[in-house]
Design goal:
Shape: globular
Number of domains: 4
Number of strands: 33
Helix content: 25-40%
Number of helices: 17
Largest sheet: 11 strands, mixed
Structural class: alpha+beta
Length: 787
């Protein structure tokens, strides 16, 4: 008995020690700053879920519905929703869609949303309805910590409504949990049996008396949510898009009538449809199908769109099965081109089993697609069907203007600008079609696009931070983040991330991003010091990681020259950034490293016989005989001593731009931005302009830019949307010459008869316009911000 008492006393002392230690401990500075920003009402709220263990058990691919009523004596003047969820939520107020979120992030500093909801409220009874999704599976945009729940506080003229034990909850068992992911990068597809759906659950008059109270209540900053942070970017915007055109219809024999199916895309292989081209407006009356048959329709939205699909049905008997296959392209037989059997190919779509009567269902996930193939089976009578899309993307305000007398130039710019809008969601994503991943090599180009289109730096700033929050133990950032993709660690993209610290400074004049993330930048540099060959002074290929460099046959083994060039460029940019902002000690450190590496490049990779840069040191120790355009462009960008730029232009760069010569390692539609930007700044704007007119003409007709020139990958890829900022710079003759746009040059290139360009900068708009006179001269107007 004495032993038991002694053990109890020891336990109590230990417990008291830790309690006391916790009460006196201080949050790390960054977390303390975040915690101080959290609104007081949200700190009163509780994380809630229907699972008694905090949503930790059996919660994969689940939807949960939440309702909270509030009676208001008057129409409120001020009302704010503070809300977040893990993984995500959609908020409705009085049946109207208000917001969805949160933005991607990491649970240790999880983002919350702040939304003005006053206009959705009314005098009397109001209802807050939330649809919550828990994937509980890592993706290319989310890392699970095994937790599921929502957290909210609604502040209505000082009256606070909280997520607590009074909230009504319902697990949406109408959604099939056993469905396949739509791709290796994204969450599962939604298959829903609307016969089981709680009809009208978003409405005030819905009877939720049988719904349950949450079984779990947890404090706002309970682990894994050590603290919360503001979203930092605007909420996504919503708008209803025009209805699609019905372009083909047909029918076929069903391969299965099973209501439950793991991946309905297998039906695109097991069922053969014969389609007849038509041109009809939606909605369509679906005629009753015969025994063992289905009816098929192909819808065209006119261009790639991004948003949540909305299914509208009238006159259902109940039990009809609607399958949808969504893709960017269809083949000549109207079959989707995407190959669902390949992990990186998306198989977007849904399945809905109809309930009796008329209904509308908006699917949870938002996808990018142009075509929708709809198959209807088990319909013994006619039904009316429509498919709509609610555009869902970042609310990018377009401030930049580009309009010329050259219709092709206009179309190329419009396709590029539109692609950038498609690829700006809660983050810059490579494509909203396949991955919706925040690839950082792509993001650099997208930031340049956005600087012209809107001047908005918020997505860029948040992205820099998110990338910095997921690193390897030896210092590298991941190619995108948050992510499960440990095979997507790209050493060159880590250097691109450093370059974007420079980009932020160059655009804004602020070194804030560098100061905030210096430690991560130095970790990357330390990694490269550790993989540098002591004999040659050049970084070596590291087989543990994916060295990207470019989608081309450029050297990647041994000691790749382009990797060395990226490293040099990053060091040089950091040195200049620090020097110009008074951080002279940091500047000296980076300059010393850069000068040493530059000397090694000049010694090892410069062919003194012609003054061109070789592509690297091969694995056998010999210098490569290949001399890529990419290497010469970087030699120009980094001021390699002894480099013969004139020869590089004459023998390589200009013949490439003019289409006079093919090259083994020709730059991709992504990497060519560095070629085009540098050549424009060096006075070869006409060649750059003509190159864009030729290589982007097909994309202009399609309406968005491709992943590659051939168009056989994604057709909504913003890494090739750089004409969005290049064309205004080229025709406007605009060249930035100092940080924050405090200095710049404007010398218009009148390659077209007429043009109007408005280029937003932090100092104000640069306005350039001209019109050709009858005598061949030009009437030019240039307006620049006052310094």
């Amino acid at each position: 008995m004495k032993k038991i008492i002694t053990l109890l006393l020891i336990f109590c002392n230990i417990f008291a020690f830790y309690c006391n230690a916790d009460s006196k401990s201080k949050l790390p500075k960054a977390f303390a700053e975040n915690d101080a920003q959290i609104p007081a009402p949200l700190k009163q709220a509780k994380w809630i879920s229907l699972s008694g263990d905090g949503g930790l058990y059996d919660n994969t691919n689940t939807f949960t519905l939440y309702r909270k009523k509030v009676d208001l004596a008057n129409q409120p003047k001020n009302a704010t929703a503070y809300i977040t969820a893990d993984q995500s939520y959609v908020l409705y107020v009085n049946g109207e869609l208000v917001s969805r979120g949160p933005a991607r992030g990491f649970q240790r500093s999880w983002p919350y949303d702040e939304v003005d909801i006053a206009k959705y409220l009314k005098k009397g009874t109001n209802i807050f309805a939330i649809r919550h999704y828990c994937g509980n599976r890592h993706t290319f945009g989310y890392l699970t910590q095994g937790f599921s729940g929502v957290l909210f506080a609604f502040d209505i003229d000082g009256k606070v409504i909280l997520s607590n034990n009074k909230t009504k909850c319902f697990v949406q068992d109408s959604c099939d949990r056993d469905t396949s992911p739509v791709s290796v990068q994204l969450n599962n597809r939604e298959h829903i049996d609307l016969r089981k759906e709680p009809i009208g659950w978003k409405n005030v008059d819905f009877d939720d008396s049988q719904w349950k109270a949450p079984k779990n209540l947890r404090k706002y900053n309970v682990m894994p949510f050590f603290t919360l942070e503001p979203r930092g970017i605007p909420m996504l915007e919503f708008k209803m898009l025009p209805e699609p055109t019905l372009i083909a219809e047909g029918k076929g024999k069903v391969s299965t009538m099973q209501e439950r199916i793991y991946n309905n895309w297998i039906l695109t292989d097991s069922e053969n449809s014969t389609h007849t081209p038509v041109e009809k407006q939606m909605p369509v009356v679906v005629k009753a199908s015969g025994e063992g048959e289905y009816v098929s329709y192909v819808l065209d939205f006119g261009k790639i769109v991004v948003g949540s699909p909305i299914l509208e049905i009238e006159g259902a008997k109940g039990g009809e099965i609607i399958d949808a296959f969504l893709d960017e392209q269809v083949d000549s037989s109207f079959k989707p081109k995407g190959d669902y059997k390949k992990s990186s190919h998306p198989a977007f779509g849904f399945r809905a089993i109809c309930r009796k009567g008329n209904f509308t269902h908006e699917f949870y996930n938002y996808y990018a697609f142009r075509y929708a193939i709809i198959r209807v089976r088990n319909n013994s009578a006619d039904i009316k069907l429509n498919l709509k899309v609610r555009w869902t993307a970042y609310p990018m305000q377009i401030n930049g203007i580009f309009n010329t007398s050259n219709e092709l130039a206009n179309k190329i710019w419009q396709a590029s600008a539109y692609t950038q809008r498609l690829c700006t969601l809660d983050a810059y994503v490579d494509t909203p079609w396949r991955e919706q991943a925040q690839w950082w090599g792509d993001a650099r180009v997208q930031a340049w696009n956005t600087f012209f289109l809107s001047g908005d730096t918020r997505v860029f700033e948040r992205g820099i931070r998110i990338i910095s929050m997921q690193t390897t133990p030896n210092g590298l950032t991941y190619g995108h983040a948050p992510t499960k993709a440990h095979h997507c660690i790209l050493p060159d993209f880590s250097l691109v991330w450093i370059a974007t610290l420079w980009d932020y400074y160059w655009q804004t004049g602020s070194n804030k991003m560098y100061l905030n993330h210096k430690g991560v930048a130095d970790g990357i540099i330390n990694y490269f010091e550790n993989i540098t060959d002591q004999k040659t002074g050049l970084p070596m290929y590291d087989e543990r990681y994916w060295l990207f460099l470019d989608w081309t046959k450029i050297q990647k083994q041994g000691q790749p020259g382009l990797l060395a060039m990226w490293y040099l460029y990053s060091l040089q940019r950091l040195s200049v950034l620090c020097e110009e902002t008074g951080l002279t000690q940091d500047a000296s450190i980076y300059k010393t490293k850069a000068d040493k590496l530059k000397k090694s490049i000049e010694t090892q990779l410069l062919d003194k016989s012609d003054g061109l840069l070789c592509d690297g040191i091969l694995p056998d120790g010999k210098r490569s005989s290949e001399k890529s355009i990419q290497m010469q462009i970087f030699a120009r960008m980094t001021n390699i001593e002894g480099f013969n730029y004139d020869k590089a232009k004459t023998d390589l760069i200009l013949p490439y731009l003019r289409g006079q010569k093919d090259f083994k390692s020709a730059p991709s539609s992504y990497w060519v931005v560095y070629v085009l930007k540098q050549m424009h700044e060096d006075g070869y704007s006409k060649e750059v302009y003509n190159f864009i007119m030729t290589r982007w003409a097909e994309m202009a007709q399609w309406g968005s830019t491709y992943e590659n020139y051939a168009g056989n990958g994604s057709r909504s890829h913003a890494w090739s949307a750089h004409p969005a900022f290049l064309l205004p710079q080229i025709l406007g003759g605009i060249v930035q010459t100092s940080a924050g746009w405090k200095n710049f040059k404007v010398d218009p290139n009148t390659f077209v008869d007429e043009a109007q360009i408005v280029y937003p900068t932090p100092q104000g708009n640069i306005k350039v316009s001209w019109k050709k006179n009858d005598d061949g001269s030009f009437q030019k107007n240039i307006s620049t911000p006052k310094k």
